[in-house]
Amino acid sequence: MNPGFILSKLARGSLTLLLTVSFVFIVLRASGDPAQIMLSDEASPAAIATFRERWGLDRSYLEQYLTYLTAVLQGDFGTSFRDGRPALDVVMERVPVTLLLGFTALLITLVLGIPSGIIAALFRGSWVDRLTMSFTILGHSIPNFFLGIILILVFSMTLRWLPSSGTGSFWHLLMPALTLGTAAAATIARFTRSSMLDVLHQPFMRTAKAKGIAHDKRILRHALPNAAIPVVTVLGMRIGGLIGGAVTIETVFAWPGLGMLLVNSVNQRDLAVVQAVVLLIAFTMVVVNLMVDLAYGWLDPRIEVHNRRVAKA
């Protein structure tokens, strides 16, 4: 992989993080005074002034922004208003729970999405294809939060098979992961089918067939690697969507992860925690995009050659 190409991606990612931090900083401070929310309605003006002075909220926005940005570059993400602990510690406590949900949903996405798309492409026009595409349209159309509510009504309230909220066991994880993974699986299935259909009609596939290469080998060695590039692109986007979508799903199922923490922190104007969570999500997106770009060169070395030519030009 061209080092210049990687450096350019890292520079773009750093700029994205800077813009994200700046946007969240401005929006949070423009949406309300944390002192008015954290303190009771009976709090005196002196108490409010003391709170603002303690947390540096009495300074100008520019001074607060420069102070915060300097601290972040040094690894200091501020202190939580709610419990007085470092914001990063508060956020990192919730990361394992969200990662468990996200990776389980990603596994569901891969297991359901990619095989469904491949099968639909190989049996194009058949009842298998029509049935698969019907499910993908349905899964793509239903909002995640609505699907989660339906699952709770059916499997928790009516059948009483699964717990409706909380964590602690595989059965607590099942419904949130299914809710989060099905929409992504529908998208992956559609793109896999489209990409496979495009590759199956390429001249090199007809050449491979003319050479007498077995059907299974043509699919595994020739069709899948070439069809994987657009699928990897969409998969990278959906991984970020799984993390962002966890905010809604964790709220529906009371899953104690980053999503629940973000919602509670926004309601309480816990600025440092909100900024840390958003920055972590943005960092994850940047890393995923970089991994997708690196995967391009591994799947198709011609992309790396093209990048080098573009860089020289």
Automatic annotation (TrEMBL):
TM stretches of this protein: 99-123, 144-163, 169-189, 227-253, 273-299
The UniProt entry's sequence similarity note says:
Belongs to the binding-protein-dependent transport system permease family.
The protein's name: ABC transporter permease
By its UniProt entry, which CDD domains does this protein fall under? TM_PBP2
Q: Which PROSITE patterns match?
A: ABC_TM1
ABC transmembrane type-1 domain mapped to chain residues? 95-292
For this UniProt record, the keywords arranged alphabetically read as follows: Cell membrane, Membrane, Transmembrane, Transmembrane helix, Transport
Asked if the record carries the keyword Cell membrane, the reply is yes
Annotated organism of origin:
Devosia elaeis
Picking any one GO molecular function of the record gives: dipeptide transmembrane transporter activity
Question: What's its membrane topology?
Answer: Multi-pass membrane protein
